[in-house]
Each structure stands twice: as structure tokens, then as C-alpha cells.
Design a protein that fits this description.
It contains six helices and no strands. The protein is mainly α. The termini are far apart. The model has no long low-confidence stretch (mean pLDDT 86).
Length: 261
Amino acid sequence: AMLSTFKTQVQEWKNVLLRGGDEKQLERYWTSFTRTEQDVAKLGRELLADLQPGKARGLVEQFLQEHQKMGDGYRKGLEAYKIAGYSHTEGDRAVSGMDRAPARLLDEASKQIAEDAQAIAAEARAQGSQAVTVSIVLVLIVCAISVGLMVWLTRSLLRPIAQAVAHTEEIARGNLAVVIEARGRDELADLLRSLETMRIALVEVVMRVRQSSDSVSTASAEIAQGNLDLSARTESQASALEQTAASMEELSSTVRQNADN
């Protein structure tokens, strides 16, 4: 924009020289010249605000200085143009070469800005590639961490479930000696604690049944021993009765003999 406006400014000076013989045309083109001159200065200040310290910024600053000198030179050339009777030859000779230094500086600044932009773009591409690499590495790390967490969570969930199933199978087979350990405060830990409570209750029930069985066994043994004692006493009494019967027979025989006698 600065380059285009600068060329317009130079062209407006040529219009001043070619058509300045007419006072209205002179005023018209000189006003346009000063307006484009101000636009160039304004664009230059805006450009400086966007540039970082460096070669390009220095060239733009030099351009603005030379552009201001050029404006002063063109104003002197305008006076010479008027004094020479609006001779465009004299007016052109008065400002000959004044636009070369600003034009050269502006062209160099444009090239330097383009080079800086290419360097920034190359650096941005390099940083972009690096960022992509870092992003891929971070994604892989996050995936690995996620897989690790998933495996850990799966094991954390499945291990208590498998433990609960194993303990339940042991209890179903009648093994009440296994101790169920519950760690944590989640639902699975509550399930294991409930299984342990059930196991303890079953152990107490079995112990009471066992105690009752022992009591029944003891009572049965005592009853059996009493039956044996009763049987022994019955046999003893039967033997005594047999002896008594024999004695009675002997006595009866004796009585018969006595009766005969």
C-alpha cells in the first residue's frame, strides 16, 4: 500500500508540472500530491508499529526520513516551477532524482519484509512440525497411560470379583476355614465384607450344630451304656432265676422223697 501510494504521489507531481499552468488544475493536483504524501507517512507509521526491531524496521524509518526530505524538495521545486513561469522543464530539473532514495529504500524494505516473512514462515513450519511430533508423542503417551489405567482398573475390578467367586465356591464345597480379606470402601469391598460376614455366620451355625451333635452323641453313648448295664443285670437275674428253679426242683424232689419216706 505504501509503494502504490508513493507512486501515486510521484505521479501527482508530474500532473502538477504538466497541468500546473492552469491555476485550478495546479491546486487540484498539488492538493492530491499533499494528500497522498500524508497517506504515505501514515501508512509508514502503521507499518513501523507492526514491525519488530531489525533491518526492515530500520529501512522503513530511513524511507520516512527520506520521504520527508523529498516533500521539502518538491515544495522548493514548486516554487522554482512557479518562478520559471510554470515551466515543467525547470520544475522537473529542480526535483530531479529526489524520489530515487525513498523509492530504493521502500523497495529494499519490501524485499527485507518478504525475506523476514519467509524466515518466520519457515520457522513456523519447523515449529509446526515439532509441535506435530510433540503432539503425536503426547498422544502416544496419553494412550499408553490410558491403556495402563484401563488394565489397572480392569484388574482392580476383576480381582475382587474373581476373589468373591473363588470364596463362594469354597464355601459351597464346605470349606469355611478360608478367610476373606476386603480392602477399600467401594461396592466390591462391601461385597467381600458381606461374604466374610456370611462365612462367620455359617461357621457359628456349624459349630452350634456340631455341639448339638456332640451332645446327642454323648447322650446316645450314655443310653447305650445303660442298656448294656440293664442287659447285664437282666442276664444276672435270669441266671439267679435258673438257679432258684433248680433249687426248687431239688427241693421238690426232696419233698417227694420225704413224702415217699
